[in-house]
Amino acid sequence: MNHSWTRRGLLGTGIAALVITGSQFAEIPALFAQGQEVNIYSSRHYNTDKQLYDEFTRQTGIKVNVIEGEPDPLIVRIKSEGKNSPADVLLTADAGRLWRANQEGIFATVNSKTLQSKIPANLRDPQGRWFGFSKRARVIVYNKSKVKPNQVKTYADLTKPQWKGKVISRPGNNIYNQSLVAWMIVNQGAPAATNWSKGLVANFARPPQGNDTAQIEAVAAGVADLAIVNTYYVANLATNKDPKKQEVFNKVGVIFPDQAGGGTHINISGGGLVATAPNKAAGIKFLEYLASPKAQAFFAQANNEYPVVAGTPLSATVKSMGTFKESKTSIASYGPNLARALQITDQTGWK
Prior knowledge:
Elements: E1 4-10, E2 15-21, E3 37-42, H1 49-60, E4 63-68, H2 71-81, E5 89-93, H3 95-103, H4 113-118, E6 131-143, E7 167-168, H5 175-188, H6 190-202, H7 212-220, E8 226-230, H8 231-239, H9 243-251, E9 252-255, E10 266-273, H10 280-290, H11 293-303, E11 306-307, H12 316-320, H13 338-347
Parallel strand pairs: 2-4, 3-4, 3-5, 7-8
Antiparallel strand pairs: 1-2, 5-10, 6-8, 6-9, 6-10, 6-11
């Protein structure tokens, strides 16, 4: 199997980024020495994150080294490297992936008053092994020319007969949808989650396919009337320089479900300290930095995510979507229910 990797210095930023391609990671010699540096393994594929690392280096003098990859291969890599892993911090999206990493024994417990005081309890692991640093809501987008927003108020409304052949989604085994179903299991029980998934599948306009952006574009094009997506995908279309992307944004609206009930489903992007971290102090300092005002503002402004620290201003685009009531269900409760969620989506044909 062929693999390719490059290491590049980002001049003026103090960042060395290692970008690896291929279905697996090639064996790479130790690239990082201990000292005033922190080694980040990240599955956050946002070019703007380099500015986040740069600001940390500017504030602390600690150099940031980055290995980027897909979530599951990164988890496998850290596990296979064992005690010799250079990784200090693992960053990834979705509570389900953080839970999987924790199940593999990757994270260490961090007792940080800063993190405990700034990050709400429902957005972090109860034992301090991982923390949420930004949020995203899983919402319903609708075609403005076909749907009135008051016609759909809950996730359950998507299963009504009137929407037969008018709903689309990513595949059910996608981690975002798995976490959504796991959240439903926690709040309503497995039978109710099964009935919901079955009703959703019955209303699909096409077989599940593509990412969240593809769902939004299809709704705008009239392929379907409704879709389930994460908020930042909608906002990123609005801020895209391509006029065609902005046109897509203008054709759709956003519904925050379950406002009269428990609130809209929330997920996170987060991370934790690797148990074998060679630079533990720097790793903890980096995690605490991600909860700082500047870092939280960066998540909000640069990536159109929701910050986890109260009082942080939203981006203008996200703010334009309106305020909403979010679910306060513990993010940590999703993980133990992921296996059952996958069974449900498989059994009901959401594939």
